[in-house]
Hints:
Elements: H1 2-21, E1 30-32, H2 45-52, E2 60-63, E3 77-80, H3 83-88, E4 95-98, E5 108-111, E6 118-121, H4 128-131, E7 136-139
Parallel strand pairs: 1-2
Antiparallel strand pairs: 2-5, 3-4, 3-6, 6-7
Amino acid sequence: MAVRLSAMSLMLGTLLLALASISTTSLAARVIVGDSAHWTFGYNYTEWANKSSPFYQNDTLVFMYDPPNSTTFPHSVYLMKNLRSFLACDLRKAKLVANVLQGGGDGFEFVLKKRKPHYFACGERNGIHCSVGLMKFVVLPLRRCHG
């Protein structure tokens, strides 16, 4: 009986150790921004982010958009400095994280590494895509809980 309990304890300990070793990145999601609409003018990304939330630390946002050509507008991805610049679509202190060519193919990937607000916007046409085209959204990644 003692040998049986010892073997069960060993199996349970091994299982717990295996579960504990699963990294948080293996649980991270890969989320296509805008779903099938991708990153495009006129789509409400704030609404999309609200419907798609919650987002978690280490999730990857994938921005997919066509490179500029004669039939499509160019798009880019900026990380806005703060809420004020996000609301005003003020790109002066924003950081370009994906240029007009990086959204093609499998898209541009942005990993939500920090648990802080991330303010995203399209910077093309001097912020018109952001202000008129609804190409902006904010995410606040949460810590992924293991239960």
